[in-house]
Amino acid sequence: MNLDKQGRCVEKQVLIKEAVMKLLTHNLLTCNIKGVKNGFPLKIDATEVVVKESDFNPDFIARMIHKIEWKALVSAAQNLGHGKSLPEDISGREKELCENEEFLKDTHHVLIEIEIMEGNLICPETGRKFPISKGIPNMLLKEDEI
């Protein structure tokens, strides 16, 4: 384990710096306000988006295809001006598409390389805004929302 001058683990600091709002993260988040039945997908209102190249891992992307809500991913990517080459629906074609390197690269781009640095996530049912600041979404609920 590597420690800095203050005795903090350097590896953990690197992970924290890399923990920014990506569309992969967005695809896993939902509004958990008490009584909300339709809290997914959260709408993205981004004021700052960056694209950072990342190493392509086709095996990871192929595994994630089966775990994400595809239509929500495509909608979010297109809302941010990306993902135009992604198919609207992949139902029944997942295995075939996971063998297509171009498809996997396009999916990698929208899942991993697009980072929302500033903006809001908005609950589709209540309109409640959850701020994104410095790439980190704040999904904490107020006392009366629990």
UniProtKB/TrEMBL annotation:
The keyword Transport does not apply. GO terms for molecular function: methyltransferase activity; protein heterodimerization activity. Keywords: Methyltransferase, Transferase. GO terms for biological process: rRNA (guanine-N7)-methylation; tRNA methylation. It comes from the Eukaryota. InterPro entries: Trm112, Trm112-like. SUPFAM superfamilies: Trm112p-like. This is Multifunctional methyltransferase subunit TRM112-like protein. It comes from Hydra vulgaris (Hydra). The lineage of its organism: Eukaryota, Metazoa, Cnidaria, Hydrozoa, Hydroidolina. The gene is TRMT112.
